[in-house]
Design brief:
By secondary structure, the protein is of the alpha/beta class. The chain has a single domain, classed as Metal-dependent hydrolases (TIM Barrel, Alpha-Beta Barrel). The protein contains 14 helices and nine strands. InterPro entries: DUF6282 (IPR046249), Metal_Hydrolase (IPR032466). This is Amidohydrolase 2. It holds the Pfam family DUF6282.
Length: 296
């Protein structure tokens, strides 16, 4: 049973990784309904809606009337998979120019994801047929392909968030190193212990480049599908420090809990384990607010 204390601690949170719809994957609710649920129950300050397949800014523009009635700010972005042309600076330019906040490098079309989940194993069945062709960010000699620079230039120009997607840790490091050279200071590594396989030592290397490590409540919610030990999440926070961690939901799938419910359950469990309230607030509110530049 949720206590008033956890509701107060989480009030004003920012979810950087919500999988509301529309999407080729079945979703629990659309972006406007997800935002309304977040505001009504936790006064969610902002959320970022993610699709593996398309520029979600266009969804939000279509829902503009409904979203105007909800105080939660909702932002979109683009994941650089086959369906948008891969490492396509023009698609990135359009998304960010129209208000997008996040660019995810290849997710389900990365070599690492394909290694771990061939044929989308472990993911929902798409409602349409989707071909997958691997997208690499390095050439045969290990050098970044030219298209990476074009994408990073757009991210730098717009002050957007660079997310490493589902790539190999070394590929993320190569892209983030180039990004730092270009002045990009808002970078995120999602679920290092799911698909990506980045150990804490590698995460510290990425943190040194300016990255935040995002852990997804999807994995740790005791009423979700994966039900990982919350103690593992607590140890990650201890190892990396809450100042370098973001907690996001990675939820919105039709068969999984609502994002707010996962925040309540996992947040309360972390507090019960001894995590200070201020550290939880930093990871769910302060760090993502900085990444989205909400206070400027």
């Amino acid at each position: 049973m949720t206590t008033p204390a956890i509701t107060s601690v989480l009030s004003g949170l920012v979810d950087m990784h919500c999988h509301s719809g529309p999407s080729p994957f079945p979703r629990r609710f659309d972006h406007a309904d997800a935002a309304k649920d977040g505001w009504d129950r936790l006064q969610m300050r902002a959320m970022v809606v993610k699709s593996h397949h398309h520029n979600t800014v266009m969804d939000l523009l279509a829902m503009k009337g409904r979203l105007a009635e909800i105080p939660t700010q909702v932002f979109g972005g683009i994941a650089l998979n086959n369906q948008v042309g891969g490492l396509n600076r023009y698609a990135v330019q359009m998304s960010l120019s129209m208000g997008g906040k996040v660019v995810w490098f290849p997710t389900f079309t990365s070599g690492r994801h394909i290694d771990c989940h061939p044929e989308h194993a472990g993911f929902p069945t798409p409602t349409v047929s989707l071909d997958v062709e691997q997208i690499d960010v390095t050439d045969a000699n290990g050098n970044l392909v030219p298209e990476v620079d074009g994408v990073l230039d757009e991210i730098a120009k717009h002050g957007a968030v660079l997310n490493g997607g589902h790539m190999y840790p070394d590929d993320i490091a190569a892209v983030f190193t180039r990004a730092k050279e270009k002045g990009i200071d808002r970078m995120v590594v999602s679920h290092p212990d799911f698909v990506i396989g980045a150990e804490p030592a590698k995460c510290r290397e990425l943190i040194a480049l300016g990255a935040y490590i995002e852990h997804e409540l999807h994995m740790y919610d005791p009423e979700g599908a994966m039900k990982w030990d919350i103690g593992q999440l607590y140890r990650w926070i201890e190892e990396l420090g809450p100042e370098h961690v973001v907690l996001s939901s990675d939820l919105g799938q039709s068969t999984l809990p609502a994002p707010v419910d996962a925040y309540l359950r996992v947040g309360e469990a972390l507090l019960d384990m001894g995590l200070p309230e201020k550290d939880l607030q930093r990871m769910v509110r302060d760090n993502p607010s900085f990444l989205l530049n909400l206070d400027n």
